[in-house]
Amino acid sequence: xxxxxxxxxxxxxxxxxxxxxxxxxxxxxxxxxxxxxxxxxxxxxxxxxxxxxxxxxxxxxxxxxxxxxxxxxxxxxxxxxxxxxxxxxxxxxxxxxxxxxxxxxxxxxxxxxxxxxxxxxxxxxxxxxxxxxxxxxxxxxxxxxxxxxxxxxxxxxxxxxxxxxxxxxxxxxxxxxxxxxxxxxxxxxxxxxx
Length: 194
Hints:
It contains 2 helices and 9 strands, in the order ααβββββββββ. It has about 190 residues and is α+β, with helices and mostly antiparallel strands. It has one domain. Helix 1 crosses helix 2.
């Protein structure tokens, strides 16, 4: 009887400690995914802002158009904008791509072939601490991470004006919860500034 009470006294606190460690490990994974998703949105905002500033200083004549061309494969970008079949808006077009930064802080966009679960997942993020402060990148230098980031840009053209919805999704397989896939998604709209 006394051994049973002793076992309960020992196993109870150990179980609580193990659950606390699992919870903190998952919170770390979730926070990392949240920051990566937010970084994806901010990178697209920054690119739009750069082109708006170039329009103001006369470097480009239409910053919004230059920004869209930067995203589009017809320009220098990774995207082929395709109609969105699941929407009632016939003008909407979307593409998906991955993005990261190189060691000098320049934005790098991967092709629009971000396929989850494929053997050559082009949106998988790698961790390279030598590339600080831009530690996560798609360029497969460094250690593969469980994180995949996909940016979805949907363009809506109405009456000669356009807007874009930006969705940044980060997927990862949780090591804490027996390989269950997790997801963090952030969303925002952007408009032509000028």
